[in-house]
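User: Predict the structure for this protein chain, please.
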Amino acid sequence: MSIDARVEALPYVRISMTLDNLRRYAVARSLFQPVSLKAAIDRLGFVQADPIRAPARAQDLTLRHRVRNYHAGDLERRYASLGIEEDFFINYGFVSQQLHALMHPRTGSSGWHKARRDRAALVLDFVRARGEVHPREVDAHFAHGRVTNYWGGTSSATTHLLDHMHYRGLVRVTRREKGIRIYAAREATPDSALTVHQRVDRLVDFVVDKYAPLPAPSLSYVIARLRYAAPQWHRELKPARARAMARLSHARLDGTDWYWPAGETPRNAAPDDRVRLLAPFDPIVWDRRRFELLWGWAYRFEAYTPVAKRKLGYYALPLLWKERVVGWANVSVVDRQLHVTSGFVDGRAPRSRAFKRELDAELDKMRAFLRV
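Assistant: Here is the predicted structure, written as structure tokens:
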């Protein structure tokens, strides 16, 4: 790997850059000083959600490093008071109001056949009349039958329709009841003063800001995934990618172009000395291509991998120390005791008292977060 490169950073200032600089930058800019829950979501823009709890849901594991005094489940408990939305961005999760407004209105009911449009209109009238509804109430009222869902199982046709109505912005999630989404009708999204190009460019800036620095193939990948965030503008994504590559700061290292927000200087980043157990979908490790380039080994999420083929474990949490991901750990709670099994890239834990001390401190923080 080349240890040095020249960086073209707007406004055309050339500075030296190394892979170590990019590693430190990737960690330091993502792990900002803990703030309030609302402020953290506004800063992140998007927090990916996942229903698996091992030992907590991914959204909680992501937020615990960035929110003061955060405990597992705080996001769901406080969701209704935060002024945020559940929605699809590049994956499903929680989005800030600013990001939500950029994505909507999505295509309303166009593309649906008449029978589906008619059913959606009836369901929407029912939701408006009730104020808030549990999918079970809607299903009991309309009894639309069952359909095959995306994971091969079956689900209520009404729940399936509500999912599509939610995605298209006809209803919103107001809260959860035992993990089930409770819906209400959504008010019409005000027209934006921004042009389509400006809105798409801002969506691109959201993903770049969240996952920078990004190698060129990853930048192309996350921009392509914006077709889920704003399907109405999917034809705008290719030219938006070209505009992004022209305006972002970038460097070439060993034949790979890296991109990050203009005006930022990766060389000056300095992560702290803490050990952290990261969620599998944490912004630092979410992009597996970038992960391998920065840390030199392949992390895989194996919850859906057959047991015999797992190498890291069911829900392995990447183990970050300073700016290095040195291994992984599987964490569980049994009889209100924390159980941890770990593995290391080099075959053994770092030989450092500082690492042992920081790992113990991180496990104490995990116990507090889980209240065990």
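Residues 1-14 have pLDDT under 50 and may be disordered.
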